[in-house]
Amino acid sequence: MAADSFFLVIEGMDGAGKSSVARLLHASLAQTQPNGVTRTYQPHDASAAGAYIRDVLAKRAKASPLVLAYAFALNRLDHLDRVINPYLADANKRVVICDRYVLSSLVYQSAEGQSMAEVYELNRRARPPDLTLYLKVSAFNCYARMRNRPNDRELFERNLVERAAKYEAGISLLRAAGEKIIAVDANPPLPQVFDTVLAALKNNGPAWLRIQPPLLLDWRESESAK
Asked: Model's pTM, two decimal places?
């Protein structure tokens, strides 16, 4: 893997604005290094077990928490092999922005009879991110934002108060394992959140990373895509 590669993960609860932030960050970094940044997501549809996971999340299929945890771990490793690692290894100063990663598995696949530590063990071979930005938002704001979404809600868009507590526990576990995770207040409007994200990346990203806010940006389109 190239010495100057940078693997960035965007995490947060449903409705936190992960996809919007990832998209805007990709547009911002592409201005200064147009051939050196890519955006991806997990679960990754084209990787192993991707279609199966989507069917479970959309309630078209059923799976136990254990089976789903293994499916996510398999999908993640295949995604690394197919997409993330080859891109980062191809040249110096390459950036991958990934929407969700191991932290999401710790939160969503841990359940009664399956601890967060056990889910972490399933994902131990996954490459650690260089930095994770956790978009921290209140359950109230998450619910308010999700009301604007289509009716086909996915499996995990409920019990957000309990979910927030699990995120904090998962972050503690990963930090104890040596991962760098920065919490970003995602309660304000998106332009303000994105400014905070850029500041966090400037302070915690690699020295060679050139950061410039997007020159042309339709915030209305980005807000509607949360």
From this structure: 0.90
Q: Exposed (0-12), middle (13-18) or buried (19+): which is 135, by Cβ within 10 Å?
A: buried
DSSP-based three-state secondary structure for 204:
helix
- Residue 137 has a CB neighbour count (10 Å cut-off) of 23
Q: What is the pLDDT of residues 199-224, one digit of tens each?
A: 999 999 999 999 887 665 555 444 44
Per DSSP, helices labelled H in 33-64 are 50-57
How is residue 54 written in tokens? 């989507």
Q: Does domain 6-224 have CATH number 3.20.20.80?
A: no
Q: Which residues contact 220 (CB under 8 A, 6 or more apart)?
A: none
Q: Are 218 and 191 in contact (CB under 8 A)?
A: no
Element (H, E) at 38: strand 37-41
